[in-house]
Give the backbone structure.
Amino acid sequence: MGGERPRCLAAGSVVRRAWHGARKAVPPPHVFDSPTGRRVYDNRHTRVTKWLNDGIPPAHVADWAGNSVPALLAPQSRCVEGQLPDLKRRLEAAGDLPERPDPG
């Protein structure tokens, strides 16, 4: 039981009604009408994508989201961006990039 997560016991319709009520009561109308957070999944997807784009390791994000890494990355793989320059810099600093062949 040490590593188990509590499961949501509420029916999906109950969760959706609670989510809709909270969304309508809390944010200003322009946020309520925006695509982000329209469904519970949209808010979750936005947060998970931000964590991945911020460079948090996928294993951590998957654990926080209650997913496996493959299940997390399947829908997110096209949304992660902006990390390549940092990854290249880190690889170059570690000396792990192969030398480019001389084109001449």
